[in-house]
Each structure stands twice: as C-alpha cells, then as structure tokens.
Amino acid sequence: MRNAFVRRTVLSASAVSLALLVSACGGSSDSDAKSGAKAGAKASGAASASSAPAAKGKTDAELTPLLVTEADAPGFVVAPDAEAKLAAGDADQISTDKPECKVLVQSQALQKIGTPTGSARTGVTAKPKEDPNATAEQKIQNALGVTATMVGLSSYDGKGAEDLIASVKAAGKACGGGFTATAQGDTTKYESVTAGTGAPVTSGDDSASLVLTVDLEDGDKLVSYLTVLRTGSTVATFTSVSLTGKAESPVTLVAAQSAKLG
Questions:
Q1: Tens digit of each residue's pLDDT (9 = 90 or more) over 179-230
Q2: What is the pTM of this model?
Q3: Residues 6+ positions from 173 with CB-CB distance below 8 Å
C-alpha cells in the first residue's frame, strides 16, 4: 500500500501496536471555503428567515471532553497523540474529478469542513481478540487485522451541521460509480461508494453510513467505513480502516459516542 494519497499515520495505543491508514488529503483553499460554506456554514440566511433562535455551535474546549474514551467504550484503546497527527492533515489540499465527492475525502481525513465553531479528534483501536493458543505470529496478525477508527467532532452555528450531513448523503449517491482524488501530485482511484452494511445507525438526529473502496497499488484494495452522525449542532465523523484492507462497521463506537453527545 505505497500510494502517497493514503498515508500511514501511526497512532500509538498502549496495548495495541497498529499502523492506522489515514487519508491525509483534503484542503481548505479559497475554492474549498466557498464549497465548504455550502456544506458546513449556510446559517445566516436560514436563521434570519426563521423565528426560532439559530443553533449555537460548540467550541474546541466544549467538544474535547465529549470525545469517546476507553471508559465509554470498553474493549477499545484510545491513542493519546491522535489529535496532533490528525490536525496536521488540515493543511493538505486535494482535487476531485467530481467536485461533489470532495466532502467524502475530507470527511475521511477528519478535516475541518466549512467554518466549524469548534472541533476535536481522536483515534480508537479495537483490542485484538485474545487466543491463548495463538502463536506469536498469529498474535501479530490478529493485531494488524483489528479495525482502527478515527473519531472527529465538529460543531457549527445555524444549520451548518445539517448542511454537512446533507452534503455527505448527496455525495454518497452522486459518487457511487467511483471518482478520483488528487493530492500532492498523486492520484487515487475510489472504485465505489455504497451504503453501509451491518446494523444501521439509529441514534442522533440524522446520520449516514457509507463504504468506500479504494484501488491501491499492485491490485490491493482498501475498504473503509465512513459514518457521520448529527446531534443538534454537532457532527460526529467516524473513519474505520484495517491494515488487512477491510474494516468492520464501528457500530459500538457510534453508539458510545452518540450517548455521550446526548
């Protein structure tokens, strides 16, 4: 998996050694800011037209303690340095052959989309299943095969959170046949975008779950889950990957994070 578009960012977890593949792409160029305004910050016009008070977004300081922890999700390990590593991807810029698909790549990398009032991010890895009869090699393979999930919270004023969810849903339909994304001169082919499998997300005010398949080098495939969940003015985003190429749906983490958001 040498494609520079899908970088390896190592998220340290005390009990698990796992290199978490992340899409460190997406950007905040002037054009992105304009399109992001549609996806994440269309609040002013809607707020003035409504008699109800506009939703108020949360700050970084308010969102950070709301991130899922090991106490909230037993069986998972939280990487303490994930925020700093994920924040570094905010400066990366991408382009896609289908503009409406860019929000999918940005969401995968937990980038700041539009103009959030606050954000917080972490990395969570499932603990490998214990097998007392497993050999040392088998234990390593079990560790590499677990699903690692990046969890991000973004909050918006007005209808920004609703608009972001709507843009992800629209992209899921428009990009089903695949698209290409380019970053730093490297192009990656997304073969397909399909509806998420497994247990549906039933919590929160609105949600979407997608499966994205990337064509890597040498015939390898990377199948990842992208789940977005809105609770009030805050959007929780989950990107789940596995070094073996196929991740599992993060239903347990989604439920735990949703409960914490209220």
A1: 999 877 778 899 999 998 766 677 889 999 999 999 877 778 889 999 999 9
A2: 0.78
A3: none
Q: What is the C-alpha separation between 152 and 173, in angstroms, rounded?
A: 23
Distance separating alpha carbons of residues 233 and 121, to the nearest angstrom: 17
* Angle, helix 160-174 to helix 30-40, in steps of 10 degrees: 100
pLDDT digits (tens, 9 = 90+) for 6-32: 433 223 222 222 333 333 333 333 334
Angle of CA points 175, 179, 209, to nearest 5°: 40
CA distance to 178, 198, 239, per residue, from 223 (Å): 13, 14, 11
Which residue in the block uniquely carries the two structure tokens 């997608």?
A: 210
Q: List 226's β-bridge partners, or say none.
A: 210, 239
3-state SS, residue 231:
strand
* Dist. CA 224–CA 227, nearest whole Å: 10
Q: Report H helices in the chain.
A: 30-40, 43-49, 60-63, 82-87, 102-108, 136-145, 160-174, 251-261
CB-based burial of residue 23 (10 Å sphere; 0-12 exposed, 13-18 middle, 19+ buried)? buried
